[in-house]
Amino acid sequence: MLEPIDITAPALTINGEFNIFTAENTKTRLLDAIHQATTADIEIDLSDVTEIDSAGLQLMVMAKREAAEHGKNLSFTRHSASVLDLIDLCGLSGFFGDPILISSKA
Predict the structure, then answer these.
(1) Residue 30 placed within a domain
(2) From edge to edge, which strands make up the β-sheet containing 73-77?
(3) Which of 31, 72, 76, 89 sits CB 3.0–4.6 Å from 67 for a disulfide?
(4) Residue 101 placed within a domain
């Protein structure tokens, strides 16, 4: 007998720039997603991030810690190439512990 698959929409999708210029608004959106989540698992979709800098990376770290402080498991999913490049450059893939799909660059 097949068990039902739980397919849920991400709690938040971040689109476009994830940087110092969007940090204030994105921080509010991340904290709202964490505090308003009705489940212990929170998913943040990064597939549409076109640019990320150290401010965006700091927000990712803050969100992971904030979720943990509230007993929730936050995961970032569908990382865009920009996000993957910065996480790799900073050597933080182990910190986030999120499954990362590595695509071949043609």
Answers:
(1) yes
(2) 12-18, 41-52, 73-77
(3) 72
(4) no
Give the CATH number of the domain where residue 35 resides. 3.30.750.24
Render pLDDT for 11-29 as a digit per residue (tens, 0 to 9): 899 999 999 999 999 999 9
- Asked if pLDDT for residue 106 goes beyond 50, the answer is no
Distance CA(7)–CA(92), nearest Å, equals 27
Q: For the chain, what is the HEC assignment? A: CCCCCCCCCCCEEEEEEECCCCHHHHHHHHHHHHHHCCCCEEEEEEEEEEEECHHHHHHHHHHHHHHHHCCCEEEEECCCHHHHHHHHHHCCHHHHCCCCCCCCCC
74 sits in the region (left: phi over 0; alpha: psi -120 to 50; else beta) called beta
Into how many domains does the chain fold? Answer: 1
Would residue 5 count as lying in a domain?
no
Structural domain that includes position 68: 12-96
CA separation for the pair 52, 72 (Å, rounded): 24
